[in-house]
């Protein structure tokens, strides 16, 4: 089991859905994709590198040879995969506290979903439907989502500064350098260790 | 298309694992053992597949019974889930996997039904696409950077942090000279290895 790599945690979850509910959820995801402002909660949390929901219809599990038995499933399945920073408990707590209405909208179509609030029942449900990762790779295990976003801002600001600064007098350079530091002060600093705990 | 968010592609593959009751070690167990022992971090084979930001491999044994009154049901096959968050196009990525890490790809997917082998990258890509499930909703917080650009930005951030620390109190002329030298050094630094546990710091900050 390898759910953790540095500062990234790989979560996998699978929940059953009655087939007639699938089109409703697809429509909701479509609207979430079209109206980007509805993703603000996820973006503001800023601790998820990548996440996805995948609906697998009951007849959609790949069958690649006649000798492979055909699945005979009653339910469609909603798969959820997330790459987040922090511990499992922090993640679920934050999801429950900040995005409960959004999560309810997505998972209420899954069987026996108790709601994202209260968090104890929500955690019990996630524990039940989660399955572990066998191999987890990230190109930058030492970096959180915030580290990546900060680094891009610093890199962009420095590129611009390095292009403009050679033609400045030393005094002008010093002022521009101070302005640069003020601009990126929230984004500089050490990357720091990965969190401990569960 | 929901597989795509900006320039990032959310690849979701479900490959059925061979069920052969006649063999001593089942394919899913052998596959799990191989994944357990596969090199990690900068030695990971996926560090050689340039578009890979984050990926995972998961043996999915079964679906979950959430309790009555829901109906209990089970999968007839186990599935290998391959889930990659990659920059760029799908075909080029899959063909790069077959071309750059063919032994690893063979060792993993030879446990799966209908696997054609990695020797023919186009056949491998076609096989993977047969196993692909379209992502319904894909969220990517940063969706427009290559792995190389991301690693370079992280490197620049930590190097500049060290530079600031080491160059406090300099005269304007000295600061300007030091910065010009720093910027030259930081641009010439080798790219940090993909997958490495740590990022080296202070290599370009200077005295």
What does this structure look like?
The complex is a heterodimer of chains A (198) and B (207). With 198 residues, chain A is of the alpha+beta class. Chain A has 2 domains: 4-129, Alpha-Beta Plaits, CATH 3.30.70; 145-184. Helices cover 42% and strands 18% of the residues of chain A. Chain A is built from 7 helices and 5 strands, in the order E-E-H-H-E-E-H-H-H-E-H-H. Chain A has a 4-stranded antiparallel sheet. Chain A starts with a strand and ends in a 14-residue tail after the last helix. The longest helix of chain B is centred in the C-terminal third of the chain and has 20 residues, at 147-166. The radius of gyration of chain B is 23 Å and the shape is elongated. Chain B contains 6 helices and 5 strands; from the N terminus they run ββαββαααβαα. With 207 residues, chain B is an alpha+beta fold. In chain B, a hairpin with a 2-residue loop joins strand 1 and strand 2 (8-16). In chain B, 37% of the residues lie in helices and 16% in strands. Chain B has helices spanning 27-37, 90-100, 102-109, 121-130, 147-166, 172-188, and strands at residues 4-5, 8-16, 52-60, 79-87, 137-140. Chain B has a 4-stranded antiparallel sheet, covered by helices on one side. Chain B folds into 2 domains: 4-130, no CATH class; 145-207, no CATH class. The interface between A and B is large, with 90 and 83 residues.
Which terms summarize this structure?
heterodimer, A: 198 residues, alpha+beta, Alpha-Beta Plaits, 2 domains, four-stranded antiparallel beta sheet, 7 helices, 5 strands, elongated, B: 207 residues, 6 helices, 16% strand
